[in-house]
Write a structure and sequence with these properties.
Blueprint: H1 2-20, H2 22-30, H3 38-42, H4 46-53, H5 56-63, H6 70-76, H7 86-92, E1 94-96, E2 105-108, H8 112-116, H9 123-126, H10 140-152, H11 161-172, H12 181-189, H13 200-204, H14 225-246, H15 253-273, H16 278-285, H17 289-299, H18 305-308
Antiparallel strand pairs: 1-2
Helix pairs in contact: 11-14, 14-15, 14-17, 15-16, 16-17
Length: 317
């Protein structure tokens, strides 16, 4: 009798969980996506890997903790080593694991997944060119379907440039969601840099540029003036959303000043295009992620060089 009552109770509890969506929340929490490390990407993207190897992101794995400011900052936030600090690992390193629940290990500095999202849920989909088919012989239809499925599984593709830019801004704007006000203030007070002038075109079209697209997948293509202008606006949209949220979470004078400068720079860019792109006005009125994505979609393929060409950097990092 007791077992019968227990089974009835268990069944009722499960039904309630299903009604309120608890089972979905539990399953998603237990299967959170994780980073697999850049080696998985480099198996196919060899040219992109060569570019990465020549960047500060790549060399930082062995150098960033040697910066004369590093020990002071790490000690100030209550940690002993940079590579053991959860705060530092948010932006300065790539941690990889082989399977859900496995031990995480630092394998690189900022790398592929820092921009394109944790790959555990999408890398197999992304690498599936079809049964018996190689990358070079994949049909256009299969490629479109494959990339759409990878994106649905969490891949942040260049076609979703606002999201890529947002990933850059979260670290370069000292605005990562996991970074609390007190820790950010302590980091700044002990010499951690915060560059309010970080701008996407300047930093993405120099040493880190990796634009290997068909038909010549070996050529690292430079952007046209129109493409740079579009990227500039999307980058400023991401900066505007990032800084607008960050400025509200701190009263630290230096932090607030930097975020306000980011907002001012982005506002100028958005004001310059809002006459021809109404989505820019909507974003200025409400700096939300949804409005940022809407703006990125609205400017896709547009030549905005007449409006923001004079704002573009003259050289790249």
């Amino acid at each position: 009798m007791r077992d019968s009552r227990f089974l009835k109770f268990a069944g009722l509890l499960w039904a309630v969980m299903m009604v309120f969506g608890w089972s979905g929340a539990l399953s998603s929490a237990s299967a959170a996506p994780f980073t697999v490390g850049p080696k998985k990407c480099q198996e196919c993207h060899t040219d992109e890997a060569k570019v990465l190897s020549g960047t500060k992101h790549f060399t930082s794995l062995k150098t960033v903790h040697k910066d004369k400011r590093a020990k002071k900052i790490v000690k100030a936030i209550g940690d002993k080593r940079m590579k053991k600090s959860a705060t530092c690992k948010m932006c300065h390193y790539t941690e990889a694991q082989k399977k859900p629940g496995a031990k995480r290990k630092i394998v690189a500095g900022p790398s592929c997944e820092s921009c394109h999202g944790p790959a555990s849920d999408w890398i197999t989909i992304h690498n599936d060119y079809g049964k018996g088919v190689k990358r070079a012989t994949e049909t256009a239809a299969h490629k479109t379907e494959r990339l759409q499925k990878a994106e649905a599984a969490g891949m942040v593709r260049p076609s979703k440039m606002f999201d890529v830019a947002s990933n850059c801004m979260s670290c370069h704007g000292l605005a990562a969601s996991g970074l609390d006000e007190k820790t950010a203030a302590t980091m700044l007070d002990n010499g951690h840099p915060l560059n309010p002038d970080f701008e996407l075109v300047e930093y993405s079209q120099g040493t880190v540029r990796h634009r290997f697209y068909p038909p010549d997948v070996t050529a690292n293509k430079e952007m046209t003036a129109a493409e740079k202008s579009e990227l500039y606006v999307v980058g400023q949209a991401a900066a505007f959303v990032s800084a607008s949220a960050a400025v509200k979470k701190s009263s630290h004078e230096k932090y607030v000043a930097a975020q306000k400068k980011r907002i001012a720079t982005a506002t100028a860019a958005l004001e310059a295009v809002k006459g021809s792109v109404p989505a820019a006005g909507a974003l200025l009125a409400d700096p939300s992620i949804a409005n940022g994505r809407a703006l990125a979609d609205a400017v896709k393929g547009k030549d905005l060089s007449g409006a923001v060409g004079g704002m573009l950097p003259s050289k790249y990092k």
